[in-house]
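debug: dumping io for the single-chain case to check the tokenizer round-trip. Nothing else runs in this session.
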Amino acid sequence: MRIEMERTHSGTALWQVQGSKQKLKEFVLRRIRVMELDFSDRTHVRGHSLYVNREELSEIILEDKSIARVDLAIARPGESKRIIPVKDVIEPRCKYSEGEDAFPGFFGDANFPSGQGETLVLDGITVVTSGRMVNFQEGLIDMSGPGAEYSLFSGKLNLVLLIEPVEGLGKHEHERSVRLAGLKAAHYLASSVRENKWDEEQRFLVKSLVDLYQEFPNLPKVVYVCQAIAQGLLHDNYFYGLNAQGCLPVLMNPTELMDGAVVSGNCAAPCHKHTTYHHQNNPIVEDLLREHGKRINFLGVIVPPVRTALAEKERIGYQVLKLAQMLGSDGAIISEDGGGNPEADLMIVARHFEKNGIRTVIITDEYAGSDGASPGLADVTPEADAVVTNGNGNQKVKLPPMDETLGYIEAIDHITGGHEGSLLPDGSIEMEIAGIMGSTNELGIENLRTVAI
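debug: decoded output
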């Protein structure tokens, strides 16, 4: 790329980009389809079956001395099993090249270009972290019955880590140890089979903004704003291994999210929390990439932390606007992370964008009461006139008993969506779908359907 500077008569410097000379980079996702999961004496893939060495993986997890015990279990689609309380869900991924890895900042350093190179995905399996409750905003996954209809994860092969911390461990350390255990397990599974033949390959060109502007000069330029809670008290996300509480908004290439650049430490309400799996498989990113070069010019992803104080929300909102304007955005999609006060951030950015000529669509969910008649959002603004809702977390559901519980069934009385008395004498559960993992997910990875009326 050659950049030349000339001066106008007023002396103002103008930067002119004459053309990009850099070599285009690629990001390659290679998928191994996993259709069966079981334990064995070594971790390997045969056909479409993944076999896991339970003892070896347990030893890796127990290297963290804050963990007293870990039990590994398998939950398959259609089984009469309930996982509770669920903390995070992670898709196994790893890089092929030495010195690089998925989940940058957690394995080695973050001093390599994430979202480039080659990444292996184990498709069809997840790592689910569970065990004694860390905080009340954890959820459940039912593998069959009506609860399974609300969760994407009910259709996955789930390797469940039931983690017990050492006595006296504080909540923040407990969350840290469980989060790292899930990432270690996901990394271990993928890296153990990276020499195997893959079933499907996806290739993405990683282009500079200069290339994008020159290639599609007449298409509307669109940016995606992906909120990420960063509020402490077990409501955090991690950018390249760094707690997002200490970050201003970060501009990312879409493929960085696929490589684990954002990791969840978020215990927001289960219905709409973004697990690490959601960030890895963000459907908004995937849809925008599909439309890129056809109807839009997709410029990239702005990931802003969602803080608690109004002054912080306003400061971050202005930074998001600044980035979008510097990119020359014509339009934007903004997705919420969490509910309640994050809706102020949602509206602040939507108001800034619309008042500055950036046409905006926001994506959220609602807490509108069990009858749907209450106001669904904690904050609104007239400029937010294009809204996609992914469901009402207050919707009631009754879940039948399961033959087996992985975790602690009594947690249902304390998690979001449950209440004292949710667990009935016959083992069934009366609750809101807010307690089901991903039931109203604000990225759209869900089984509910939004219908325009």
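debug: round-trip ok. Residues 1-20 have pLDDT under 50 and may be disordered.
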